[in-house]
Every structure is written in structure tokens, then in C-alpha cells.
Amino acid sequence: MADDVERCREALKRCPPGHSDRSESLNNLAASLRDRFRQRGVPSDLDECIELLRAALLLRPPGHSDRSESLNNLAVSLGDKFEQRGIPSDLDECIELHRAALLLRPPGHSDRSSSLNNLAASLRDRFQQRSIPSDLDECIELHRAALLLRPPGHSDRSLSLDKLAVSLGDRFEQQGIPSDLDECIELYRAVLLLCPPGHSDRSWSLNNLAVSLGDRFEQRGIPSDIDECIELHRAALLLRPPGHSDRLSSINNLAASLGDRFEQRGVLSDLDESIELHRAALLLRPPGHSDRSSSLNNLALSLRYRFMQRGVPSDLDECIELLWAALLLHPPGHSDRSLSLDNLAVSLGDKFKQRGVPSDLDESIELHRAALLLRPPGHSLRSLSLDNLAVSLGYIFKQRGVSSDLDECIQLHRAALLLRPPGHSDRSWSLSNLAASLGYIFKQRGVPSDLDECIELHRAALLLRPPGHSDRSSSLNNLAASLRDRFQQRSIPSDLDECIELHRAALLLRPPGHSDRSLSLDNLAVSLQERFRQRGVPSDLDESIELHRAALPLRPPGHSDQSQSLNNLAASLGHKFEQQGVLSDLDESIELHRTALLLRPPGHSDRSSSLNELAASIRARFKQRGVPSDLDECIEHLRAALLLRPLGHSDRPLSLDNLAASLGDRFKQRGVPSDLDECIELHRAALLLRPPGHYDQSQSLNNLAVRLGDRFEQRGVSSDIDEAFSLFMQLPHISHAVSRTDLTTAKSWATAAEKINHGSALLAYQTALKFLDQHVTLLSPSSRHFDLVRMATASLAVDAFSCSIRHDELTTAVELVEQGRAVFWTQLARLSSPFNELSLLGDTGAALEAEFKQLSFRLRSAFDRSTEDQSPQMRQLTMQWNDVVSRIRMLPDLSRFLLPPLFSDLQKAAAEGPVIIVNASQYSCDALIVLSDQDPVHVPIDITQTEVSDLSSEFQSLSKEFGSFDNQHKLVSILRKLWHVIVDPVVQALRVSNVHPGSRIWWCPTADFTLLPLHAAGPYEKKRDSLPHMYISSYTPTLATLVRARQQVSRDAPPQHFVAIGQGNPDGGRPLDCVAPELAAVAQRLVPVVSSFASLEDNDATVEGALDALNHNQWLHLACHGMPNRQQPFESSFAMRDGPLMIKDIIRSNWQKPQFAFLSACHTTVGDEKSPDESIHLAAAMQFSGFCSVIGSMWSVDDKVAQQVVSAFYGNLVDDSGRLDCTRAAVALHKAMKKLRHNNIPLEQQIVFVHIGV
């Protein structure tokens, strides 16, 4: 090389200034110096080279045939200088010279492709320095142009394909455009075809294609990409045997790709091979090698992954040792020091999580802070450092409970998220981490909005991890966990259902062999266990136990999560014991908890949780067997747990509460006053940690108030009971979304107030019913939520009514009993609420009305159709509906839109006759007569709730045996009792109120009164009238229902379209011979009267046929089997030819102005005996679906009797103008039954039909 330079110098001396060959000699000497610079790296060689090239360029002015060559050579050398020294002006000049050279090499010039290529390469260099997108875009276009000049067969085609692929890969990394990466891969495939086996560049081509496929796998998670990537890297490695200069690169790339596949599929053999490859790479980088630190780091991280999967401590110890060695090779000032600090910090955090040594966590945080200082604003890895430091602060918060740590954690996560805008490859991680931190702060402070934000962030992260994404299972898991937290706070069943479905989806992505399978089995099991506790379905608990048993073998002795699996299986067995009472389940549960505790020695981060759960199991055994030592041990464990949850710990209030509860148990067993005193002080301490706004505050208020009540009962100190009720009276002022706990506490308040006749009782009921309304509003309409409504409403309304009566607040009694009965129907009725006020308020009102109606229609149409996958959409619809309602209430005069009605609204129900509410409560039984023009009239009833219940049970048993003379005698006995105790006192009050005989009256019974035939009560003695001889009775489930029905009666004279549907041969049912004659009798009466008459019988009377007919007819006669379903009331049905027409089908319908329905079927007014106040029966379904007037039956109907009733009934339904009038239905039925009384028909068939509605 030295000889070349000297020879060229001698040649230059022979070409002095002015010599014709001087420019060529300058060029040759410059080329020799550039070659020597590239070999030895001496800067002066390159400087001289550039000066010589500048001189040569001056000798080749514009027009000179070699000018383009000089421009090109000078540009290339300036590019070399930029690469060595990084001076931006050198690169800028390089680019301008390449541009000038390109202009001198127009299309057709032999060197044009070379100039295009060189200019593109320089622009790419500038893009890498300054990240100006236009440089990269121009680079790509130039490479495309060069490729066109190098068609198949051209010697440099593979080079152009390669360069274009590289640049497209760069743009993909910057902008994330999928098509760039796809094109890049296709170009690399084309290069590989030009490098067949034996070609010197084949290993490079294999490597480049593999790397690009790996990038696409990281973006899209397509399994075939990572599989092909690995096979290509294996092929490249075979072409780079020991001693090959690029062998190390291939080993590293193959190891990294195997690690990526492990992360997606969790196959341990991939991770083991990856580790062995990284060990091989490290051997090729001995001490002193410039890249040794990189190999130390790669091996360390792979060992960390294996530790996280298997929990073997030695893997983590070796990982940390390697990372310390890497850090020593990255002293202050080294460009990779921040990365080493970061990795070591993360691994020390892992070690803390496994062994609980606080110094490891402290050191981890200090290292993360040091890394962050080396990544100032603008640094490409700043967001990663913010994220990592935040995660570590989250761990230290969980250990020590210092709020400032958690606040800083969230602040750092928010800062990281701002640095990862939409489109950023790590945005999903930032969303996920911020969500997790908000979940922690919610658990500490209980602010519901934190949890809502957490869930929305997890949803956003999941959207960025579509099917196939390697982290999708993690996002499914995280979102599920947050929904479970919200379920525990607000008890919205759809949250728990969605949680379970998300965990099922995550489990499918973690098949046998996947590293996280045990975690998914565990999480799904825990969620099913939660649902079992809520709904009591045994299959949920059985599945939960099986899943926990499946998870346990995947966490063998030594596994870091074995204690968690033991703990969770123990908890499930504890719940099974609670359900089935098998003591062996409880004993196994306790032993498993004891084993888990041994694996969580002092210092373990989860020790307090194990102590707490073991205590809970032992407490359950104490309650079963009453062995005092069990309770003492329970209290001892709870004290130990409390010591591990110091002030600031998120679970401290829970520990305080649990210890308090157990001391309360011991007080009840042994009567030691100090136990009760300590119990109260602990509940006080828990309450202080749940300030106003905390979702569990009401639970703490309740716990403390109840124990103060216990102490008042023991010692009679009035300050205790005063304090108890002052605590309860904080409830009306809670500011967060109402939870089931809040409602339970309000009911507890009411119970406590009733117990001592406290003056706050009525306020307690009003608060509870307000909470009930707010809580139910959060539920999407679904029969899955009915059990929740039933539990929430149990006896609340009837007790509130009784309390109001006893406080002489008669109008309040009406309001409260309305608010707490038929809650489910009321919620559904809101979805079809007719109103015209909005259209009077201009465009805004009209728009809100349209939005309200659309959302209501969608919710009602979706009733019980939603699969688990649709539950998020259902919940979203419910939230949108609530939002529209809130906006409507802001309009003038609409502040009470869809709120529980006031008495002034309800009184309109009595416009055509009095409504008599008959109420049975544990505190009193009363009747209240609501009149249209005066205050309600109270009628005391001399019967207890227990006696009403007994009478109802007696009647229900009797109704199943109707037919014999003996039954007639028993029926008369019951009707006489109803008369003497209930109905006669009401009749006397009606007479005093000037309600004349022959008038219409409406019965609105509650509780067990709903199952008794009040309309037929009487003395049944000669010369004494029974109720049917005095008044015309109708029923209504609620007053609001009757008001709504009156509003829906057609006031004009529209066409009257009638359909008669009869099914005498139902699917799987007993034939009904009288259906056809009955429909014939209806037709005979009505064909001359109505605008149109349609009849569906036998094969035409199908479910779809009936529903379709009701879309076109407003008047209905239905003759078929009625099939009540007391276990699943929403599946009560009418038997059609092809199957059941169920209540839920009726609810989903959207019939236009239906008027009247005669349900000539059995049991159509019989609902769920467990919740009679909800009126879930066929007749109520028809009424709530819009029918203003309905005839139904209370028990089995004799077919022949039904035919006689129908014939007589329809003759009386026509008004003086010759039209049907649905408001005459009660009178028509009254006259028809009166006629039957003369036909020697059994008494039970004379009174089986009842009228509901207007």
C-alpha cells in the first residue's frame, strides 16, 4: 500500500501544473491514500485525499468528460470522513456532490445506476443522523430507480435489491408502515434467489431475510414468520463454521429468534437452546473483546426468562452476576451504560420479588434512577427508563405502602406514555403499565374513577395487540383482572362474565407447555370461584377446583408460584365446604393453607396474605365445630398479618376488619368485654383508612355501627347507639357510583333502626331504595341480572311501606313501595318510555329523543341475546343510554325524567277508580287505598306476615288439586278468611270514601298477597254478598304500570286489527281439543266488528308466526298451554307448534300500540314464588310490552269453561259505537263470569280469570 502511494506521488511529480494528465494523477494519488486510510484509519491520509480530489475537480470544469467521476470520488471520500468524524457539513457536501454527479449522468449513461445508488446511500446516512423522513423517502425512490437500471441478469441487481430492502426496513422502523416491511421481505427473497447454494453472499442473504421476518413477527405475531426466521438463521449458521468471521453474528441472531418464539409459545426447549447459543457466543468474545458486554447481557436476559418460567434461583443469580460484569465493561461515559444499569436493575427487582430482601429493591431503584439520568429528554430510550423506574416504585409501594412512591410511579408512567404516541411500537406496554399502577392506587384509595381509567387503558392496550400478537394473552389477562376488581366494587354481573371469557381466551393462547399456562389456569379458576360466590352455580365451583388442581402440578416444589397455587386451591375447597358442608374439604383447605404458609417464610412479600387466608379457613372451622383453640389460632394469625401490613399498606384496612370480626366472634362466644372494645377500635382504624369517596367506606361504616350496636345491647351506653346511627347517616352523602355494598349497608341501617324504633328508619329506607335505583340503572337488561335484583330487593319495599305507614307518611309509603317493586320491569319499561316533551324543545330535544329511542330499542332488542363476547358492547350501550338520560335531565322541566315517580304522578292511577295496595311486611300488614282526589286511606289488617305466607302456601297447594268437592270446601274456607281479615275492612273503608257499589277497583298486592285471589273473597253465606257482587276488580303490578297503560290507550278511532292464535297440538305437549271451537267462537263474535281478523292455528301457530302476527295486530286472543317456569321465570312460555314462545321473546319485541290480550292459557299470572313482587309472569310480560289491558289466569283453566267464558266475554267488549274498547275488558269479564255462576261450574273455574290493566 505504501508503495502504491509513493509510486502515485512520483507520477504526480512528472505531471506539473498545466500537464494534460495532472488531474488523472491527482485522482490516482487520492485513490491510493483513501485505500490506505480504509486499511489503517490514519486521518491525515483521508484529509490529503480530499484535498487532492478538490484539486482534480478544479482541473475538470463543467463540460469535462471526467467531471462526474471527480464529483463522485470527492463525494465518496467526504462520506468516509463523515463516518469517521461525524461532521454534518461533510455529509451535506457529499450529498450535493452526488447530486451534481447524477445530473452529469442522465438516463442512458452507463454509470447512472452507480450515481443513483451512491446518492441514495448518502441520504440514508443523513437520515440515520438527523431522522428527516424526506431523506429516507428520497433514498428509497433513488434505489427504486437504480433497480430499474439493473434488470434481471445485471451483475449488480442483487446489490440494488439489497439496498432498497435495507432502506424500506429503515422506514418501517421509523413509521411502522406494514407494506414497507412486506416489500422489504419480498426483496430479500429475490436477493436470496440470486445467491444460490455455493454463492459467497448466501449466508448474508439468509441472515437478512431472517431478520426481516423476525421484525414482522414482532409486529404481527404470525407464527409461520418466526418459524421461517429460525430455519433461515440455522441455514446461515451452517454456512458460517467455526472460524468464520460472521459465525458469532449468526449464533446471536438464532439465539434471539429462539427467545422470541419462546415468548410467544412458551416451549422451554427453545429457551434452553437460546441460552446454549448465547453461552457459545460469549466464548467467542473473550475478555478484551469489544462486544463481550453485549454477549454477557444477552446470556443474562435469557437466563432471566428461564428463571421467570421455572423459578430456579441459580438462573437468576447467574443472570445478575453476568449483568454486573457487563456493567463493569460500560463505565461512566460509555454509550451502553444506561442499558446495563437498566437490565441489572430489572433483575434485582426480580430477585426481590422472589426472596423479599429489601436491599435488592432499593438497589434496583437507584440503578433505574441512574439510567434515567443518562437518558435525558429527547433520548430514544427515555420512555423505557421512565417505565422501568415506575414499575420498581410500584413494587416498593406494595411492600412499604408509602403513597408518594405510588404517586411518582403513576407520574412516570404518564410521562412514558406521552413519549409513546399512537403508532409507537411500545405504546401498548405503556398503556398496560399505567393501567396496572392505577389499579394499585384504586386498591389503596378506593377512588372508582381510577379503576375505570385502568380498565379503559387495558382495553386500549388490547386493541393494539390483535389476534396473533405475542402479548395478546397478557392483555386479555390484565383486562380480565381489572374487570374482576370492578365487579368486586360494584357487583355488575357483566363485568365478571366478561372477565371469565377473557381469561378463557387467554388460556386458549397458553396451551400445554406454555410458560404462563399455570397463571391462566389459576386466574380463570379464581374468577369462576368469584362467580360461584355471587350466583351459587355449583358447576362454577367444580370447574374452579379442577383448574386449580391442574395448575398445581405445573408449579412443582421450588417453583416461585407454588405457594399461590396451594393458597388458591385451598380457598376453592373452603367455598366448597361452605356450599356442601363436607368437613374433609375444609380440613384439606386448612392443610393446603398451612403448606403455603411454610413456603412464605418471614420476609416473603405474600406472607401476610397466607396468614390472612389460613386464619379465614380456621375461623370457618371454628364456626362449624366451636373449638375455642381454632378461634384463638385464627386471631393469632390475623395479628401477625396486621403487623406485616403497616400504615400505608393497601391491605391494612382489610386486616383490621378481619381481626376485628374474629374478636367479635370471640366476644360472642366468651363475653369478654375487652374483645369487643378492641374489635370496635380496629373497625374505627379501618374506617379512617377508607375516607369519603372510598368504595369500601360504607362497609367500614356498617362494621363499626353494628359492633357499636352490640356494645349498646351489652352495656346500654347511649353514646354507642348514637354514634352507630351517626355513622349510618353518612350514607346518603356518598359521592361515588353506588355499589352492592352501599345498598347492603343501607339495608343494615334500616334493620338496626327498626330494631330499636330509631327515628332514622324512614331515611334509611329512602336511602336504600335510592341506592337500589342507582345500582339497577348500571345493569344492562338481562335475565342474568335478575337474581341480583331479586337479592337486592328482598322485602325492602314492603318493609319501607310498613315503616312509612307507622310514621303516618302515607304518600311516602306509596312512593317507596313503587320504587322497590317490579324493579326489573320498571328498568325495561324505561327502554320503551313514551314521551313527547323533547320534541317541543327544538332541534336539541329532537336529537336527544332520537338518540334515546335508538339506544333503548337496541338494548331491548338485545335482551338475553348477548353472548359473553358481546357483553362489552352491551355494557357500552348501557353507559351510552345512561349518558343520554343524564343529558335529557338537564333540559328545562325534565330534571325528573325516568326517576322514580312522585305521589302526585302515581295518584293518576286512581283516575278511573281506587287502587288498593295490600302489603305484607315482617313489621305489619296494611292496606292503603289510593284515591284520585284525596289523601290515601290507611286500613290496618289484623294478620301477620307469617300468617299470610301460610295462607298463600295453603292456597298454592290447594290450587294444584282443584276439581273435587273437598277442594271446593277448602277453597271457600280460604276465601272467607281473605274476606274477614283483609277484604271486608277494605270494603268498609271504600264505602266511607263514597266508592259506590258496582264501581271498578284495582288491587295492587305485594309479597305473598300476590298469590291469593283477593278478587274472589267473600263470606260465601246465603243473603250475604261477596266482593264480585259489590265491585268490579282488576289488578295492577304497580301504580306506574297502570298510569303508563292509560297513556297508551288509543284515544282516536284507528283500524282495529285482531289476531286469534290457537295451538291445540303443541310441541311435546298434551293436545287441547277445545282450541279450535274457542277460536271459532271468537271469530263468530268479532269478524263483523273489527277492521281485520286473522287466525293462526296448528302448523301456522309457531313462535315466529305468532311474533310476526303481533307486529301487525293490536288485539290478541291466545289459546294454548301456559308453561310457568318457577326456576327460570324469563323462560315461562306459551306452547307453540315448534316450541316455547318465552317471556324473553316477548320482551325483545317492539309492537306498535298493542291494546288488548286475552290469554286463554293456564297459569299466566303466576310468577316466581321467591320474588312475587317482581311479577315475572306471562300476563305481566304482555302488559309491560305495551298491552293496556290483559286477561289472564291464576291457575289451570278447564278447556270447556274457557270456551264459554270467551263467547260471553267478547259480546260485552263491544261499545255503543260497535267498536272494541279495551277499557271495557274488566266489565266484560265480570259479566261473563256472572253468567257462568248460573251454569253449575266449579267455583275455582268461576274465579280463575283475572283482569290486569285499564
UniProtKB/TrEMBL annotation:
Return the InterPro entries for the record. CHAT_dom, TPR-like_helical_dom_sf
Cited Pfam families? CHAT
CHAT domain segment(s): 974-1240
From which domain of life does this come?
Eukaryota
The molecule here is called CHAT domain-containing protein
What is the species listed in this Swiss-Prot or TrEMBL entry?
A: Suillus placidus
